[in-house]
Automatic annotation (TrEMBL):
InterPro entries: Ergot_Alk_Oxidoreductase, NAD(P)-bd_dom, NAD(P)-bd_dom_sf. SUPFAM superfamilies: NAD(P)-binding Rossmann-fold domains. It comes from the Bacteria. Residues 6-174 form the NAD(P)-binding domain. It comes from Actinokineospora globicatena. This is NAD(P)-dependent oxidoreductase.
Length: 272
């Protein structure tokens, strides 16, 4: 039995779909529309009692918590309970960057990775860069104004399709393979180039470069930790060049999905 924690998220839902036909359980806060065959357990990953019951009979765990102020506390609790339950293998969605990264959430992920190592559980750490799917957060603004903001200017950025990350996770869960994998798409691309490709699809779109202070003001109303995170990762991208790799292709035996294919697939969302 494989337990998926975070199965309603972008990557977790794709993991559930990829595990079709494999005995799979998902811990969810509220019942939802999950893929057929998935056993839903309603509970809270922050509650040790929920975790203990849900981990009964589980040999593998996929852990992908949404970013937030309690993420480290909750993930450490999952690791502790998984070790107590005798889980054989844990696949964790993590983040790129060194242990002393200027990005607070990346440093948090490293601390959880350290806890997994100390637990003795066999493990796979997946460290993807920004998801193509994150571009959809700009879709409403793009349709309304024909533009979206960033502080990264012409800096090329590693992006990857969350479904490729999920496919790597599924392969690791089924093979019980271990390792730490930095995951990117097939190219590094700047946000102005994203705008250019959307424009080529049929609607003029601009990427507007802002200062950090201007973007902070633009994000007013979002949780402060989230605003800090966005600014930290965008600042890091401009000071530490990002370069794509072929890890997804090596692990899956097929090319990583391309941004162009993703933009065509979601052209209607962007108003193209």
């Amino acid at each position: 039995m494989i337990l998926v924690i975070g199965g309603t998220g972008t990557t977790g839902r794709a993991v559930l779909q990829g595990l079709h036909g494999v005995p799979t359980r998902a811990l969810v806060r509220t019942p939802g529309n999950l893929p057929p065959g998935v056993e839903q357990v309603v509970g809270d990953a922050a509650d040790p009692g929920s975790l203990r019951g849900t981990l009964t009979g589980v040999s593998g765990v996929f852990l992908a918590m949404g970013n937030g102020p309690r993420q480290e506390e909750i993930e450490l609790g999952v690791v502790a309970e998984a070790a107590r339950a005798g889980v054989d293998h844990l696949v964790k969605l993590s983040a790129p960057g060194p242990a002393d990264s200027p990005v607070a959430i990346a440093r948090m992920h490293h601390r959880v990775e350290d806890a997994v190592r100390a637990s003795g559980i066999k493990h796979t750490f997946l460290r993807p860069y920004a998801f193509f799917q994150n571009l959809l957060f700009h879709a409403d603004r793009i349709r309304a104004t024909g533009s979206f903001p960033t502080t990264t200017g012409d800096t090329p950025l590693n992006m990857v399709d969350a479904r490729d990350v999920a496919d790597v996770a599924v392969a690791a869960l089924l093979r019980k393979s271990t390792g730490t994998h930095l995951l990117t798409g097939p190219e590094a691309i700047s946000y102005p180039e994203v705008a250019a490709r959307l424009t080529a699809a049929g609607k003029p779109i601009r990427c507007v470069t802002l200062t950090a202070a201007e973007l902070r003001a633009d994000l007013a109303g979002a949780p402060p930790w989230l605003v800090d995170h966005v600014l930290e990762i965008q600042s890091l991208a401009t000071t530490h060049p990002e370069h794509p790799n072929t890890v997804v292709a090596q692990l899956l035996g097929r090319p990583a999905r391309s941004l162009d294919d993703f933009l065509r697939e979601h052209a209607r969302a962007f108003g193209a």
